[in-house]
Amino acid sequence: MSRLHSQLLGPDGAPVVVLLHSLATSSELWSPQLAVWRRSLRLLLIDLPGHGASAALPGGGSMAGYAAAVAAELDRHGVEQAALLGLSLGSMVAQAFALAYPARCRALVLAHGAAATNAALRDVWQERIAAFREGGYASVAPATIARWFTPRFVRNAPLTMAWIQDLITATSAQGYVDAIQAIQALDHSDRLAAISCPTLVIAGEHDAALPPAAGQAIATAIPHARFALLEGAAHLGNVEQPTAFTELAGAFLHSVLLPGVHAPPGAQA
């Protein structure tokens, strides 16, 4: 299996949290959270196959294959157990990891994701593949950005939109198509009850790509999972509402991984 591009940030010996990004971005997507989380958590940032600096997987993409590649990165860094935080595609991969490697998963944060892709959505994704193959990212990027953020945020954050555009267009064509095909085949719904680790599910109030009902369904299916609605956010809530997302997911991870530990203001990691 090809190695993925990954890096570890944060204090030696701190609990490890794997960060898994969305379709057509890279681990750079987590930039708004890094300064806060790396003070007390050991962050393993991974570029998923065909994204960022990672090559696509031989033979195409699947959630099981992506999960195995993540497990291989944990092995490479000598990490036996970790929490996983995934957003959109990353949420789907995190589910697959928790199902395949339950003993290695300490906690889950599943943001802006779904557990299955129905027939209608599979057709929508197929249309996007066709548009991409015909016109490249120029034909899909504007609509993608419109789904990912609220109109007001798009208008008011042109520099951020330029950054997101760069992340999209830096994704390899093979990685983009492989990931969409993996999403088309997604079906974890009947298996989520097997997940036993502490889980937080986050949905965006204005997410048109994967509405809050999709997140609520995941939270209902996973025993004892918590559900949180991120107000004012569409699909990439960690970018549109960075402070709220950082605090929400960070507080959950600290409660599970570092219970009773409260870093005083100004403390050095």
From TrEMBL:
<keyword id="KW-0378">Hydrolase</keyword>
<protein>
    <submittedName>
        <fullName>Alpha/beta fold hydrolase</fullName>
    </submittedName>
</protein>
<feature type="domain" description="AB hydrolase-1">
    <location>
        <begin position="15"/>
        <end position="240"/>
    </location>
</feature>
<dbReference type="Pfam" id="PF00561">
    <property type="entry name" value="Abhydrolase_1"/>
</dbReference>
<dbReference type="InterPro" id="IPR000073">
    <property type="entry name" value="AB_hydrolase_1"/>
</dbReference>
<dbReference type="InterPro" id="IPR000639">
    <property type="entry name" value="Epox_hydrolase-like"/>
</dbReference>
<dbReference type="InterPro" id="IPR050266">
    <property type="entry name" value="AB_hydrolase_sf"/>
</dbReference>
<dbReference type="GO" id="GO:0016787">
    <property type="term" value="F:hydrolase activity"/>
</dbReference>
<dbReference type="InterPro" id="IPR029058">
    <property type="entry name" value="AB_hydrolase_fold"/>
</dbReference>
